[in-house]
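Methods — Computational structure assignment.
A single polypeptide chain was analysed. Its primary sequence is given first, followed by the predicted tertiary structure written as structure tokens.
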Amino acid sequence: MFAAIAFSSTGICQLEYQALNFNNVNALLSNGGVFFNDTDDAAPGYEMPKGSGNHGIYAMSFWFGGEDVNGQLKLAATTYTQEGDFFPGALTVSGDASSPEAEEASKQIYLISQAQIDYHIANYDEVGYDMPAVIEDWPAHGDPSFDLAFYLAPFEDVDGDGIYDPTFGDFPIIKGDQAVYMILNDKGGIHASGSDPIGMEMHLLFYQYVGGDYLDNTTFLNMRIINRGSQTLFDFHSACFVDGDLGDSSDDYVGFNEGDNVMYCYNGSNFDADYGENPPAIGVALLNREVNKFAPVGGELDATGMPITPSDYYNYMSGRWLDGTSFTDGGTGYGGDVEVDFIYDGLPYGGGWTETTVGNPPGERRMMMSNQHFGGVFAPNTELCYDYAIVSNQASNFLSNAVNVINMAEYAKTHYLTDGEAYCNNIVLGIDEKAAKLSFDIYPNPSNGTFTIQADGIYTATIYTLEGRQVYQSANLNGNQFIQPGVSSGIYIVKILQNDKIYQSKLIVQ
């Protein structure tokens, strides 16, 4: 484990670092909100291939923002500042969304492999078995004495009692062959962006596979965000910000492909001072949502430059430059007459609007793509799920590699769609769903808040939040029953009591 002490604008705190390097990529991760970046040395942290000393990304971070009922902007965003707006650990669930100072378990980074999990499954009850600390300490539950959510990190509950206990065979659930899990929030300190916080909790799982093909050069990310506050936000946007720095950072281009929801960085010529001939291209793809806006983020002190104020971040996410004007077609995307959502959305060769066809000089490049989920409403207890893939290609010349990155994004999405249940659906696995499905069913699920329980005989139905708070109960139900519990959007536990036996299942309300 690689750990370091870091100092932030909010005081003295401990940042933890982990290197995810199971495949051909060495990705440096921290729990301060800026990823793939070595803060101590102000150096890039996404090495590809690992051991080469060459890097494809200098830093990656995320932006979130929306307006409350009074039109006041609530935002959490950073570019390079660790613990600028994001801090380690989970938030309280009673409405104030505070970050307990004394609670430590949810503030750590957990590096774990599927091989460790498989060995635990096979040997947990064997004499002399030495359980790995990451399995023993897995943050499956929040500490109720600190008012944290009872269910945090996903796990498989082998004995069906709803409690994570690896000594009885329970085990963490991850994706990939190796993964890093962490929990962040935006209430652990003063926002460096100057914004009012949201009260948001972030669960992140970075993971890699060894697949002998493009998977060897790919890093995936699942991100779940939860509104732990008491305010509903409207016109809510999220964004991914990337500083590419592809080898030599002074000779890059960027682009976007709408069909595969991927933004990418490629070299401005067929030679890079670090990578040499035929330098690679790298891309970041959003796998489970549609990208709504894309723009390069410049380094100059003008309307197309780096965001500084909260409204700057929100403008970019909303498809506007820093001066409030819209992204426009042609040239650099600024100052035109026709509004567009995506800048440089052509192919690097074959025509279309690109940096090469415009004739821009290569240079330092940063990029941003944003998403707004349906309706743009982020209500209390609402959870949003985002899945990303960081892909790369180095098989031919610099333009072909850029086009191939788009293909790699398509392959990554295909793998994601065929790789079993989405990770965000595995939030509460302290549930024996196999047994539950034998005795009752819920449909539709997800629902709009009203649903039918399909069962036989007489039973009692109780609905709980993920924090264990009862929100509905009805006794002496018989057979199929139409239920209107009056709950808000979120994920719930439905328990059926019948003949002294309890059956449980997940309920998603959208």
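Note: Residues 3-426 form a domain with the Beta-galactosidase; Chain A, domain 5 fold (CATH 2.70.98.10).
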